[in-house]
Amino acid sequence: MIVKPFNEMTKEELEEVLADQRAKLDAWGEQNLTLNLTRGKPSQAQLDLSSDMLGVISDRGDCFSETGLDCRNYGILDGLPEAKRLFSELLGIPEDMIMILGNSSLNAMYDAIVRCMLFGVAGGREPWFRQGRIKFLCPTPGYDRHFTICKTLDIEMIPIRMTPEGPDMDAVYDHACSDPSVKGIWCVPKFSNPEGITYSDRVVEQFAALKPAAPDFRIFWDNAYSVHELYDEEVRLADIFELAKKYGTEDNIFYFASTSKITFPGSGLAIMAASERNLDQIRPILSTQTIGYDKINQMRHVKYFGNADGIRKHMKSLAGMLRPKFEMVEDTLDRHLSGYDIARWTNPKGGYFISLYVEKGCARRVYQLARSVGVALTPAGATYPYGRDPDDSNIRIAPTFPEVAELKTISKILCNCIKIAAAEKYLKNFN
Amino acid sequence: MIVKPFNEMTKEELEEVLADQRAKLDAWGEQNLTLNLTRGKPSQAQLDLSSDMLGVISDRGDCFSETGLDCRNYGILDGLPEAKRLFSELLGIPEDMIMILGNSSLNAMYDAIVRCMLFGVAGGREPWFRQGRIKFLCPTPGYDRHFTICKTLDIEMIPIRMTPEGPDMDAVYDHACSDPSVKGIWCVPKFSNPEGITYSDRVVEQFAALKPAAPDFRIFWDNAYSVHELYDEEVRLADIFELAKKYGTEDNIFYFASTSKITFPGSGLAIMAASERNLDQIRPILSTQTIGYDKINQMRHVKYFGNADGIRKHMKSLAGMLRPKFEMVEDTLDRHLSGYDIARWTNPKGGYFISLYVEKGCARRVYQLARSVGVALTPAGATYPYGRDPDDSNIRIAPTFPEVAELKTISKILCNCIKIAAAEKYLKNFN
């Protein structure tokens, strides 16, 4: 097959590509495949790596905290001291800023927004629900579940373009500093979902320096992939709390993390970190909501990992499993798409996703084509507020769950589909 | 000491009682005691009874659901089928009405109210927060944490008197059927907190027959002590869902339960049960809040108990531990207070509390006196909305946590304090 940019191809060349790729896709279609590239979830092999944790707490003797507290009983609202210390070491956040909250950081974020809606924030004047329609800034493409929270709560979403070093901070400042109905922003600051971008020091400092128009603005700093490097080289994210201290803006930050992609999704630990002033406002509300979270599971994590280095070592083993998967996708895309100038994609150094951009107006078509031969892709648009990708171009690739051999097949089919969609688009120019 | 009703005693007799009881209390004071009767929590021996559950899930092979689902991974919003079946058997509620929600039924109830506030209910017109000040009916004395939820959310609480067969249903009907701002009622229908009363069949049927003025009224049916009999004799609570079917009122009911006092508080399972129409409204909001709850812990409970009979057998063992504690308190109160006509108390057949009524205007004084010698009682008034016991008479006794010997001491001191407070009160009549 001829290799040159599609926009330089003649009608005949495009028709030849189209016919060739359609034939290939038809051949895949005959294999009755059922393949899935949508799920940002760990593979069984990854989970097996944590399975020794299951037996770590096996009798009563394992259930006592260093303070003598019986983890099997009521007591302690926001986390065992040793669990706070573990995350403090891991994330470089003082222990007294950390709360251990349940099994899901998504739930912790939802609860945090709901508290803002019903009770407002420390230093704010009124609950958000009393302030008419409010808005959130949404770096895009981004995490669909963040956007779903806004949609469900009828919070207007303003898309903010992602740049290679983080959200477009000019746009963030424009909106946040001028419009008091803008109450927050969603950030996945390290190995962002789905771009895999880590915010530059400059961007993090700009977040720390931000003086929003709304006194009750909050940065939802979802550090979901804090230790999720794929390679030995550590990718450093600047310390937003440390920088915020300089600007006196610590209260602006709600920080979240979890072990969902360290140990077990759904059976891990979620944390929230915030300033003393924020926690003083949150804790009484939290104590109305619950007597406490699952301390036995907190102890299970503490005993299994011992300390932050235990988690880091564990993450290196996980990286060893994930790296070949990411590389298989990237290599296959590279091998089959280089030279045609019809797609680009990220080569993340960590996290859970590869972000693929196909020709404008082609993402939905690629999704349909792949589906027609049994390959499930994340629906085009899912990574944008209201599911609307203005360019109809982005596709989120989640390579962690399938096996490497499956990923090879899926990626090849994906390249097929991308070429078909692009050829169809360019051929229209000749009509 | 002379034994006759205090209101028949002469001034001199009362003075003698007072001097005698003060001397006894002083003697206790010299022992530097630290005793606690406040905590409605299991003792360590109770927790030990469940400790074999800790090791039930010890490797990957234990983590697969009957559907083949890997409990260690994402998937399933509202509970494993086998966990739903376990509670369905135990509570006599169809599986498809049951959701397994996290580690705390208090949290499940808080979340349910918050959903009503922000999203309203199935068949309702508007979210509660858009309807001005709303009200809840609060059978009293009742569970302080229910009341705290209302207080925190600024929901006005209307006290409803408890009768020996449940809440005063005339009062419930008066308020609920005439005032559309009355949106709900808190019920602990079996072994109520703190009275230990189980609602009669008539009362349950009246709840089922209730046609509230508000289309978005909900009965919060907190069946916290569903299988928590202290004696062999089963105390039967009528099936509210079954009765509601007859009246077409199933949508009025939000049903809650948990294993907090079956296995481990904070590391157990919470459930919510509701009609299909309610669940259809709730599930999309829930799926915004979380991807799912801790399925490994669900599996741990399923594997440990096997079926509902496993739980019932376990509860019989727990009852064997709790019965002597309740009886020690009751016997001591009986021995030291009979004949004086200055106190009455419940003799519950199950649950976690004894409800003690001292002379009107004396509960706070009893609390203070006990505190002065190192005995912590639940603060007087705690079992009433806004902490206001209009009679200043009720004291909640939680006998589960202390040892039997401690309970003997505490109960004796309590009787001392009750006599002192009553003698002081009656002596005022002679001034």
Write up what this structure looks like.
2 copies of one chain form a homodimer. By secondary structure, chain A is an alpha/beta fold. The first copy, chain A, has 2 domains: 159 residues, Alpha-Beta Complex (Aspartate Aminotransferase, domain 1); 243 residues, Type I PLP-dependent aspartate aminotransferase-like (Major domain) (Aspartate Aminotransferase, domain 2), CATH 3.40.640.10. Helix content of chain A is 41%, strand content 13%. An 8-stranded mixed beta sheet of chain A has the order 2-9-8-7-6-3-4-5, with helices on both faces. Chain A has a 3-stranded antiparallel beta sheet with strand order 10-11-13, with helices on one face. Chain A is globular, with a radius of gyration of 23 Å. The mean pLDDT of chain A is 97. At the A-B interface, α2, α4, α5, α9 and α10 of A face α2, α4, α5, α9 and α10 of B.
Short recap of the structure:
Chain A has 431 residues and is of the alpha/beta class. Chain A is 41% helix and 13% strand.
Mean pLDDT of chain A: 97
Query: For the largest beta sheet of chain A, what order do the strands appear in spatially?
Result: 2-9-8-7-6-3-4-5
CATH architecture of the largest domain in chain A: 3-Layer(aba) Sandwich
CATH superfamily of the largest domain in chain A: Type I PLP-dependent aspartate aminotransferase-like (Major domain)
How much of the polypeptide of chain A forms β-strand, as a percent range? 5-15%
Q: What is the helix tally of chain A?
A: 13
Radius of gyration of chain A: 23 Å
Number of strands of chain A: 13
Sheet with the most strands of chain A? 8 strands, mixed
- Quaternary state reads homodimer
